[in-house]
Amino acid sequence: MRTPLVAANWKMYKTVRETVVYIKEFRSLVKDVDDVEIVVAPPFVSIAAAAEAARASNVAIAGQDLYWEKEGAFTGEVSAGMLREAGAGLVIVGHSERRAKFAETDRDVNRKVKAAIDGGLVPIMCVGETLEERESGQTLAVLDRQISAGLEGRTVDQVSSIAIADEPGGARGTGRTATAAQAQEAHAHIRGRVREWVGSAAADAVRIMYGGSVKPANARELMSRPDVDGALVGGASLDPRAFAEIVAGGRPGAVK
Ligand code: PEP
């Protein structure tokens, strides 16, 4: 059985002070959730404070990106080791905004996945077509390219331990969620490719999260599908109560 992973991607929102206030409230809202791995990814500058505020709770902290070198003359970049020491246990890699706005390539994503694993972080590798690619019928071809490039060179054990976040074009930040059936279809395809290219053990273990306008009202339906193992949540994760309800599978009663 795969434990669902639900992660908040805060993007470039919240200061250090706002982060600490959020985590203190959020951790008490989700303290009784024991069947979901819960992750918050704040901006780099807040990771240490977030990890401290989340200490001894069921909330893990993630980076939103990393660079593949350990150290060096790479102004503005942050390594896996630095993230880990600051208190992160995971890291988002290849988010669509990184790919589209910062020109990250599949090759970069591959190096970042490797660097994360080598540095002791669990990568959440994002894949997903753009709206244009979706409308021209390229969805599965884009997913195939991103998955094969991103995972190339990784072992069965390594692939088993990572998470893949599928964020379909047109669903991110738009309020237009994919239907649960569409998400299931794409995730089944991704798992099938992992089975073909890496093997059954990795395919059965890898968590495939859905990302794109997840809210308390649709979280349960999406995550009830067999190949949807959690969610990567942008906008709705900025509110602690809304994110807690998503974590609890959209069940407001499960949130204290
Ligand atoms: C995202 O960009 O990772 C994302 C899922 O955003 P949203 O939930 O706001 O669509």
Please, could you describe this protein's structure?
The protein has a single domain (5-247), classed as TIM Barrel (Alpha-Beta Barrel). Helix content is 43%, strand content 15%. It is built from twelve helices and eight strands. The chain has helices spanning 16-29, 47-53, 80-86, 96-101, 106-118, 131-135, 139-151, 156-161, 180-197, 200-205, 216-223, 240-247, and strands at 5-9, 37-41, 59-63, 90-93, 122-127, 163-166, 207-211, 230-233. An eight-stranded parallel barrel has the order 1-2-3-4-5-6-7-8, surrounded by seven helices.
With helices defined by DSSP (H or I, 4 residues minimum), what is the helix count?
A: 12
Largest sheet: 8 strands, parallel, barrel
User: What's the total number of strands?
Assistant: 8
Q: Identify the overall geometry.
A: globular
Helicity level: 40-55%
Low-confidence stretches: none
Q: Domains counted in the coordinates: how many?
A: 1
SSE-based structural type: alpha/beta
The CATH class is: Alpha Beta
Order of helices and strands: EHEHEHEHHEHHHEHHEHEH
Separation of the first and last Cα atoms: 26 Å
| The CATH topology | TIM Barrel
Write out the distinct hetero groups bound to the structure. phosphoenolpyruvate
How are the strands of the biggest sheet laid out side by side? 1-2-3-4-5-6-7-8
Could you say what the CATH architecture is? Answer: Alpha-Beta Barrel
Q: What's the gyration radius in Å?
A: 17 Å
The CATH superfamily is identified as Aldolase class I
Mean pLDDT: 95
Q: Tell me what portion of residues adopts beta-strand conformation.
A: 5-15%
